[in-house]
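User: Hey, my collaborator sent me this sequence without any context and asked if I could get a structure. I don't really work with proteins. Can you help?
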Amino acid sequence: SQKGHRNVLSTFISALKKPNQSVEVKSKILSSLGQFQNQNTLPVIVSFFNNADPVLSITAIRAVTNFKHLKSFSRYHVIAELKNLFIKTNHESIRIRIIEALVALKYEEIVDFLMGVMQNASDKLKIAAIRASASFEDQMASSYLERFLKDENCFVKAEAILALWKLNYNHKRLKQLIQTMFQSSKREALTAVCSILGDIGDVHFKQKLIPYLTFLDPKLRLYATVSLLKLGYKDAGKCLTHLLFTKNSVVLNMAKELLFDLKPELRKQIHKLIHREISLRMHNEFDKKNASAELLTDFKNAYLCIDAYSEADSIDEILRSSYGMHPLAPENIYVAQ
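Assistant: No problem. I've predicted the 3D structure and written it out in structure-token form, which is a compact way to encode the shape of the chain:
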């Protein structure tokens, strides 16, 4: 079996090195290498850190975080490459994943690193650093995060509320801040607070979130939907399925990222729920003979958002055989904007 395992890895690595191999296939292979956790594949994975395509960079960074027992020099090398890329790249999504990876790899100077990010970086990176700080479950972090409750950026403020909630900071004060954000006239405040309530985990917030399932603003609706799913409100699955058929690539990006960041068991449940909704919708359209090439591409994009690659491949085959189309990986649905 070890020989067969080596043959599979060899085949994967050869496929990665093919210049004409699609981004979609390379991304799947890198993810698989991360699951295998064979340290001999690390040089190949690390070589994709600074790839021209941000999809592959992010996938490679995520892949190394799956390695649970990196040897000393391998771990040192991976951390050094990640820190170097953090300095070089201007791509915020890549930098966010680097922060997450350094936390997962237990980088010894992570606190100094996070403090520097919270002090000097953009709002999106501050959010990632605040989230990472809460993951250590060290209540002393509260004294460093409390100042962000007054931040002008609503999403930074919301992330600070969530982080401090997890650190058992004054829940009464945090609930008051949540209520203030709900009552705000700023759409950004409302969107931001909807984005954290699922992770706060208080089921009493369900009734506040449900009305936003019908809002026209797709970002607000998406955050409310995912929070409700986290709180166990399964009816939100239909709303999320509908959002996956948007023509807005930014919303598709957000949906895929939000689904990816769910806890594995919850992600599996939600993927199953959405998979059923997409399949029902697809059968209904076929029954009505409405299956145009454009609609089929929408179905493919929706399936890719929940990592249903075999279904996406089947649609590719239909597009190829029935419409004479050469299917390409859909643009801009992998990397959060």
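In plain terms: Confidence is low (pLDDT under 50) at residues 328-337. You can pass these tokens on to your collaborator as they are.
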